[in-house]
Amino acid sequence: MGVRNYSTVNKRIASVDPWFISGLYDAESSFVVVILRNPSYKTGWSVQTRVQIKMHEKDRALLLKIKEYFGGIGNITKPNKNLTVEYRVYSLNDIINFILPHFDKYPLVTKKYTDYLLFKQIVFTMLNKEHVTIEGIQKIVNIRASLNTGLSESLKEAFPNTEPVSISELNSILQKKLNLDWMAGFCTGESNFFITVQKSKTKSGLAVSLRFSVAQHSRDLLLLESFVDFFGCGYTVNYKNRLICEYIVTKIDDITEVIIPFFEEHNILGSKYINYLDFKDASTIIKNKDHLNQEGLEKILQLKNKMTSFYKNTSINNHN
Fold this sequence. Notes:
Number of strands: 8
Strand content: 15-25%
Strand order of the largest sheet: 1-2-4-3
Shape: elongated
Low-confidence stretches: none
CATH superfamily of the largest domain: Homing endonucleases
CATH architecture of the largest domain: Roll
CATH class of the largest domain: Alpha Beta
CATH topology of the largest domain: Endonuclease I-creI
Largest sheet: 4 strands, antiparallel
Distance between the termini: 33 Å
Radius of gyration: 22 Å
Order of helices and strands: HHEEHEEHHHHHEEHEEHHH
Mean pLDDT: 89
Helix content: 40-55%
């Protein structure tokens, strides 16, 4: 690829596949409904909806491509103190005309699909002007109670008769066959590429290994378990005490013969692509056993330092 920097990586983003976008939104987006006291409204309450996706400032070019895909609607925020930016769509008309048609045609796969369906119910409740009555506000509150983390304490106090809608009927659509570009988008958001170097009794005194992983809330354990079949390798771990599950691949043959070829065909996009390339270089060194000599080991250590710096400089708070 030549010099590896963010400007050259961004030039690679010519277009973004619709399924890639859904995969990335499965990883990094939120469907937000804000209900606020507002005395200027007849009901005393206002309802605001928005769809947002958060990434590091270095991935602004990718967000711009997504904005372009959605017809230029919405806006991209300025970097905050954590150097993260968000692409946000507020307009009810834009959500109805651009956002909903996309996710109906290219559905989300994680449990976030349930949040999307609840969000969609609220959007159509507002489209039908039901939110201009207190009964309509209560209906929205009932739906909002099942969305994301539920209601704030103040909303619970203001609407004591709230009955959260049942989400058991809103079945997740974990597909029999995951889309390849969805996987690329999802892994652009949620995957990690690691080089591990540990002390050992080998001649060099160090043992080198690679690790590809994807972590999610434990509610998506079934999805991550399906990755084992999708890739034909790896395993899952459910950290019950942390409510986190993880798909992991560590065998060098699986990494060089399955994981790397997949992402060569279905690219990671944005800043993480640089990290992927370093991981790929390390896999070649290890596959050829060049890490057993001093020169190869030094290259591995250099790549590891670059990747450690990447995660330090691009980490964002998980908001899903």
